[in-house]
Amino acid sequence: MGKIKIAVKTPRIDMTPMVDLFFLLLVFFILTATFRPEEAAPISTPKSTSSTPIPDNHLVTIEISKDDKVFFNMDNGSDSTEHLRAKVLQAIGSNYQIRPPFTPKEIKKFEGLASFGLPALKLREFLNAPDVKTREAMQVGIPIDSIDNQLAMWIRYARTYNNDMQFTVKGDGAANYPVVKKVIAVLQDNNVNKFNLTTDLKAVELPEEFSIK
Amino acid sequence: MAEIVQEEGHKGKGKRKAKKHGTHIDMTPMVDLACLLLTFFMLTTAFNKPKVMEIILPEKPKENEKPPELDKDRALNILLVGNDKILWYVGLADPNKTLPVLTEADYSKDGIRKVLLQRNKDLFTQVATMKKAVTEGKLKIPRDSVDARIKRFYKKDKLGPIVLIKAADGVKYRNVVDIIDEMAITNIARYTLVDINPVEKKMVQSRLPGSSVTAIK
User: Is the entire prediction scored with pTM above 0.90?
Assistant: First the structure.
């Protein structure tokens, strides 16, 4: 009598649904991913217990780095037809008498950049810089002293082209307060009394006798 | 991974039949890659946006306009000095009278927070009980009207301290954010950022000799 041989068959798993799912998720994550644009300076924001999220658009961010340099950033508007950055750049150009006016190519470049911190007269050189390193070296901070307060000009023009601009001060925790204070004073001089401070979230802790359970 | 094809020996005799196979594409590398990319994007996606802390400062007084008078019994002065230290006193520092005593505190939960909570107990309990009622479902109001209610409590506040935050030189931005955050935690209705005055500078210097306190221009 011969033994009955059972054919050993490896089970075949149909992977199509799994692959489908993977790709679906992949596409979702690719589309939702927002890449951090070229940063002018690394900023580690201080912590607070506030949980209000940052507004999506019409946002002006004034950054203060660890070494007390001031940077300016604003978004291009709620969609690409607003061209807020382009308008502000042109206004700054004519205000500081940059001749000839910015070319469409330079304006386009400026629209694609994020924060910047340099005197207005250096803007053209900055926009035509060949690479990131050269640009980085030019970021010396926006002048905010009373003789040449360029930050005030940027703020003013940002408000000229959109009155709903929200202002955010994003300072490094280790920045010296006098600089931040100056920035806040510039904001107040331009009648911006309501603004945000960008912070990281932390939990609230209360002393024993006050914690309500 | 996808499939392991085991060669089965040809049994029996007869012609070797060419097996009809649907073209099988080995999907393993593709799946691997998809998995890898998926993991990468999942890990790099930052779902939590940065948070912001809103501050509303009082408008700057106009040229020939007097700043509003301050009820000096309610005034709580918080002097921020370097090295993460806080000094505080109540009332106004009048150089012609005995100067108030400075008390030292820090940024921990039993530091300045306790001081503020003790002075702002009424308002804090009001807000905290309201929030508790909302989370427990006893009070059914829309989420966004919670803030409005808190603001109304703030407006009615007649007893809580009016906090004057005065930052000296050598203070880091972090310290100022911390103290403004304390105001939010302890539900202080009225606070503002002001300059440190010469009298206070002297007081700090006598309290903490060796620390150079110069006001910010």
Answer: no
**Rounded Cα–Cα distance for residues B84 and B173 (Å):** 11
Assess whether pLDDT exceeds 60 at residue B1. Answer: no
Composition of chain A by helix, strand, coil, percent to 5: 40, 15, 45
The pLDDT tens digits of the residues spanning B75-90 come to 888 888 878 888 888 8
Distance CA B39, CA B56 (A): 42
Q: Please identify, in words, the CATH class of the domain defined by B70-118+161-217.
A: alpha beta
Using a CB–CB cutoff of 8 Å, tell me whether B46 touches chain A.
yes
- Residue A124 carries which side chain, given as an amino acid letter? R
* Interval B50-54 mean pLDDT: 85
Tokens of B158: 């007649």
Interface confidence, given as ipTM, is 0.76
Identify the helix (H) or strand (E) that includes residue B37. helix B28-44
Cβ pair A207:B4 closer than 8 A: no
B50 has a chain A CB within 8 A of its CB:
yes
CA-nearest of A188, A65, A104, A1 to B59 is A188
Residue with tokens 């370097």: B82
Distances A108 to A76, A80, A87, A90, B156 between C-alpha atoms, Å = 11, 12, 11, 12, 52
Q: Where in chain B is the domain with CATH 3.30.420?
A: 70-118+161-217
CA distance A165 to A18: 46
B152-161 tens-digit pLDDT = 888 888 888 8
Contact check, Cβ <8 Å, A22/B34:
yes
Contact B173 A188 (CB under 8 A): no
User: Least CA distance to A44: which residue of chain B?
Assistant: B174
